[in-house]
Amino acid sequence: MPEVRLSPFDLGFLVGESRATPMHVGGLYLFTLPGGADESEEMRERLAWFRATEDWRIPFGHVVKLARTGAVWAPDAELDVDYHIRHSALPKPGRYRELFAITARLHQQVLDRQRPLWEVHLIEGLPNRQFALYTKVHHAATDGMGAVRLAKTMFSVDPDAVQPDTPFSQRAAERARAARQRAQGVPSPREIKAVADVLREQFGVSRNLVKVLGQYVKAWWRPDEHNLTTAWNRTPATSISSKITGARRFVAQSYSLERVRAVGKALGGTVNDVVLAMCGGALRRFLLDRGELPDKPLTALNPVSVRGESDAVGNVVGALTANLATHLADPAARFALTQASMLEGKALMRQLSPAEAVLFTELTAAPALLVSSLGLGDRFPPFSTVVSNLPGPEERSYWNGARLDGMYPVSAVYHGFALNFTLVSNADQLDFGVVACRRSLPSVQRIIVDLEVALTELEQAAGLPR
Fold first, then answer.
1. Which of the residues are catalytic?
2. How does DSSP assign 59-87, residue by residue?
C-alpha cells in the first residue's frame, strides 16, 4: 500500500505528545469463554490468530516518517509482531480492581515512535471464565469512532462464527466497508469523491464556514445572550482543570441503555443529552464532596463523528461544547440547560458539510492540543472535561465464540482537563470508561457511584419509577 500523508490535525497529536500527555486512544474489552473450552488453549489460539496477520492495514504495519510532502505513514519493513501483541495475567485475586489497575498502567505508557503506533494485550486471570483484551492506537491514526469501527470487525452476532482475518488486516477492512455499503445502500467512495470534487470546484467550502465561525465568535463574545456554549470561555478552575502527570487512573461501568433512553423520552431529550446530564450531575456531586464546586458551570467537549462510510486513516470528527450546568442543584434544570446548549450547537453544525465540520473543529477545538503541549492548559483551560458518546454493536456480540460482556473506551487526558468520560453503546447497555490523572484526581473511582446517583436523580425528576 502506498504512503499516506498525515493531516495537520493528525500531526498535532504527535507534536503535542509528551510523557505527561500520551496521545493514544484505547479500549478494554471483557469476554466470557464458551462452556467447555480450555482456557489455556483458548489464550494460545487467540494470540496466534492476531499474529497471523499478513496484509497489514494502516497504521498497523506502518511507521511515521518525514517525506517531501510532510509526515506520512510508510510501510515498516522490520515489523516485530511479538512486540505489539502481548500476553499478560492479573495478580490474584483477579478482580476488576486489578484489571482496571493494569489497564491504567498500560495506558499511561507512551508508544514507541520507532515502531508502528499500536499495542494489543490479551489479559487472563479473571474469575468465571472471563478474560480481557486491552488495545491502544495512536490518536494520529484514528479517532474514537474509527477505533470502535475497527474493533467491531472482530465481532459477530453468531456465537459459532470464526472471523477469518484480524481487525488489523486490509481484507477485514474491505469486507466491513462493503457490508456497510450493502446495508445502507450508499454509493461507493469513488462516487462520493467525484461528487464532492465537483461541488468543491463550484462552491468551495469557505462560505458556510466563515458564517458559522462568525456565529461562534458572537456566542463566545456575549455568552450570556446565547445558549451556545463555546470553548475558551469562563472555564472555572478546579482540580479537574489542573496540570497533569503521566500516571493514570481508570475505572469502568455499564449502565442500562433502556434506563437512559426512558429518561430521555420522558424529558424530551436524546440519549446523549441524558449522558451529558449524568456526567454533569456526577461532577457536581464529586466536586461538592471535595469542597471545590465552582459557582460557574463546568463544560465538556462533546466530539461528533462525521466519518460516514469512510475508513480514512486519522481523525474525522466535529466537536461541540456542552454546558454541564453543575452550578444548578435541580437535576431537571441542569438537564434543560445542557440540552439547550447542545441544540444550539447541533443547529450550528447542521450548516456545515463533513469537511467543513472537521475544519471548524481544527479551528475551534484543536488549539487545545497546542495549549496543552505548551504546558499552559491549567492556566487557559478550553473546557472542563471530555464526554464522548460512540455507537457500538446493536446486538449481543461474540469474538470467535467468546461473548462480549463489555467494551470500555480508554481515552486521553491533557493539561487543563484531567478527566475524560468516553462511552460506547453495546447491545442493551452503555459501557463507560473513565480516565483521569492519578495525581489530580486520585479518588476518581468513586465517580462511578456518582454517575449512578445522577441517573437516579434524573429518573426521579422525570417521574419514572426507580
1. 139
2. TTTEEEEEETTEEEEEE-TT--HHHHEEE
